[in-house]
Amino acid sequence: MDGIEKDINRDNRAFGEMLKAAKRRLENQSPENIAGRSGAVFRREDSVLELQSLNQTVQLTIPEYAFYPQLEEWHQLVVLHYLNLADGTAVSDRVTAFGELKDGLIRGTKFDRDTENELKRFLKGKTPEHIRRICKSLGAEFLESNADLCAVFPFLPNYPVWLKVWLADEEFEASGKLYLSRSADHYLSMEDAVTVGEILLLKLKIQEKELFKDDNDKK
Question: Under 8 Å CB-to-CB from 182, ≥6 apart: which residues?
Answer without folding.
Answer: 92, 94, 95, 96
